[in-house]
Amino acid sequence: MLRRHIDWWFRDRRTGRIVVMQLPNLPIVLWLMTVVARWLVAPDSSAHAALAWAGSLTLGWWAIDELVRGLNPWRRALGFVGCVVVIVGIVGRLT
Length: 95
Hints:
Layout: H1 2-10, H2 26-40, H3 46-69, H4 73-94
Helix pairs in contact: 2-3, 3-4
């Protein structure tokens, strides 16, 4: 029974392979770069704000792509969670 659940969540429907993550993943790499760059600039600077918006855009790009084109339910669920994180972050930044 556990194997059936694992197969359903993680198996790529096209190839039959178990897929948890894929490399390279350009949007995630770009998002991580914005996170690191924000550590290097002053928190109250316009550069920090620009990097935060750029990070939201790249994470949103990844999340929507996974939600729409994810290879399995696990990847689509991660995309959904990513969308929620981006929306909460943007709303928090605007309020």
